[in-house]
Design a protein that fits this description.
Layout (H helix, E strand, L loop, with lengths): L1 E6 L2 E4 L4 E9 L6 E7 L6 E7 L4 E3 L7 E6 L4 E6 L8 E10 L4 E5 L3 E6 L1
Parallel strand pairs: 2-11
Antiparallel strand pairs: 1-3, 3-8, 4-5, 4-9, 5-6, 7-8, 9-10, 9-11
Length: 119
Amino acid sequence: QVQVVESGGGLVQAGGSLRLSCAVSGSIFSIDDMGWYRQIPGKQRELVAVITSGGSTNYADSVKGRFTISRDNAKNTVNLQMNSLKPEDTAVYYCNAHKSLMLRNLDYWGQGTQVTVSS
């Protein structure tokens, strides 16, 4: 069994910063990609940032230059530093751990953490 636990959400004023953290534990070996997604009511979950086991990163255009993703492979943790937050960043943020197998992919999700940015 695999557990994905996020922390660090909250309420912040526009222009402020928050740091989200995620820890993955349990029966999983060698996570490939770790990422952060977000979702607002009535919309699809969207990619915010992803980082491979080798350290390559990819960001949504809307967060480039403001958010930074990092991971610790030894600890199976991933962080998202969010700076210069905007009201449109308000969403539930989900941590994802992805592993590609020969015949299928495995995706594990956290329960989500609320980020609210006030104007």
